[in-house]
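Quarterly update from the structural biology core.
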Amino acid sequence: MTLKYLTENETITWQPQKTNEDYIKEIDKSHLKDNFRHITKIYDYVWYGEFGVDALKFETLKQPFENLNKTITNR
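Predicted structure, tokenized:
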């Protein structure tokens, strides 16, 4: 969802072969870059670390994603 919003906002140019690091390099605004870097760390930790996430932990982890998405779409 965040990549979609960043693309629509013309902050990044989405391409299927790009990595999150590629997108971080494209983001000019430091607050967006820092927040995107943070959510990609969460994603990598959960997805590639294969850690289970219960409902309570999910509620905590989803906040940075939702906050960034709101920041992007409210500009």
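The mean pLDDT is 94.
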